[in-house]
Structures are given as structure tokens and as C-alpha cells.
TrEMBL record:
The keyword Repressor does not apply. GO terms for molecular function: N-acetylmuramoyl-L-alanine amidase activity; peptidoglycan binding; zinc ion binding. The keyword Ion transport does not apply. It comes from Patiria miniata (Bat star). Belongs to the N-acetylmuramoyl-L-alanine amidase 2 family. This is Peptidoglycan-recognition protein. CDD domains: PGRP. Residues 31-175 form the Peptidoglycan recognition protein family domain. InterPro entries: Amidase/PGRP_sf, Amidase_domain, Peptidoglycan_recognition, PGRP, PGRP_domain_met/bac.
Length: 203
């Protein structure tokens, strides 16, 4: 009887471990990344490592056309990279991560490379810049896209890219090189209701 009881307890413990592991990885398992090779990115001119975990996540919108299919979204990301590299003379696409209307996450500079998205040296070096393809001045992204953004932020914590106490900001909160409406007058109030958003950075 004792052996059966011990065996039953062991099985229950194993099941608990499996469930906990599954739950712990649930956000990341729900995020579909598109690698640079998959969206046919150009090689960066240079890159600077960024130490993780990061204390900030900055949300942007591209303020341009939306996309709904993988082909169209990949083209939008390539267009952004070309504009940033050829128009601005930057080393690569400015954003770390790009969310398309196809509900996939396109890897720009990635979690561990300093971006050029914030208009602030400090935030470029200490935050992940996440942009959503489209203009969200007068409307919100789809529920699916917002869900991907939330999952991506949780995944960032789970995978050690963001601190558990990271602060969520909109581009307009951090830009030092002039005012901006980014991430849009409709999207910005939405992210203000999310966990981790603070009106002011703590001293």
C-alpha cells in the first residue's frame, strides 16, 4: 500500500511540474517570431550589444499602412529597414521587434542589440523598442495584435529579456529630440491601462 501511495504521490508531483513548466512557457509559446532570414533582412552595417534584462519597453506605431498577410507584412518591414538605413543612415532597422497585422513578431535588431527607435540615447540603450505596423491615431490595433503585444511583454519577462519590474512607456514619453504623437492617440491611452505603465519614471 505504501509503495502504491508513494507512486501516486510521485506521479502527482511530476504532473504538477509538467503543468508549471507548461504554464511558465505559455506566453512565449504563443508568440510566433519571424527571423531576419525569413523576412529577408539586409545585413546590419554594425551592431552594439545590449545587456539584458532590460528595465523598459517602449511601444510605437509605424503611422503608415497596415498589413494583414505574411508577405505584405514582410514587405513593410523591409521597407522600414531600407528607409532607416538609406534615408536616415542608421546601421539597421531602428526597432528591436515589429508586430504585423498577421499577428507575428518580426525580429528587427532583436532583444539584445541597441536600437535606434526612441529619440533618446538612454532609452535606445536600455529598452526594447516594439512597433506595431499601422496608424493608430484614430483606432486601435485588432484584438489579436494587442494580444500578441501583451504576450510578447510577458514572454520578455519569462525569457529574461525584461526585468519583472520593467516599465512600459509610449514613444511620446521618452523622445528627447522633439515631440511625437507616437504610438497614436488611440493606442497610447490603451497601453496606459496595462500593468507596468507609469506616467513618470521613478527617480
Amino acid at each position: 500500500m505504501r509503495i502504491k501511495t508513494c507512486l501516486a504521490i510521485c506521479i502527482l508531483l511530476c504532473l504538477c511540474v509538467i503543468i508549471n513548466v507548461a504554464n511558465g512557457g505559455s506566453a512565449c509559446s504563443d508568440v510566433t517570431y519571424v527571423t531576419r532570414d525569413e523576412w529577408n533582412a539586409r545585413d546590419p552595417k554594425a551592431r552594439v550589444d545590449m545587456v539584458n534584462p532590460l528595465g523598459f519597453a517602449v511601444v510605437h506605431h509605424t503611422a503608415g499602412s497596415e498589413c494583414t498577410t505574411p508577405d505584405d507584412c514582410a514587405q513593410e518591414v523591409r521597407n522600414m529597414q531600407n528607409y532607416h538605413m538609406d534615408g536616415h543612415g542608421w546601421d539597421d532597422i531602428g526597432y528591436n521587434l515589429v508586430i504585423g497585422g498577421d499577428e507575428r513578431v518580426y525580429i528587427g535588431r532583436g532583444w539584445d542589440t541597441v536600437g535606434a527607435h526612441a529619440g533618446s540615447t538612454f532609452f535606445n540603450q536600455n529598452s526594447v523598442g516594439i512597433t506595431i505596423i499601422g496608424d493608430y491615431t484614430n483606432k486601435l490595433p485588432t484584438d489579436g495584435v494587442l494580444r500578441v503585444l501583451k504576450q510578447l511583454l510577458v514572454c520578455g519577462v519569462e525569457s529574461g529579456h525584461l526585468t519583472e519590474q520593467y516599465l512600459l512607456r509610449g514613444h511620446r514619453d521618452v523622445r528627447e529630440s522633439g515631440p511625437t504623437a507616437c504610438p497614436g492617440d488611440t493606442l497610447y491611452p490603451e497601453i496606459q491601462t496595462w500593468p507596468h505603465f507609469l506616467e513618470q519614471c521613478p527617480d
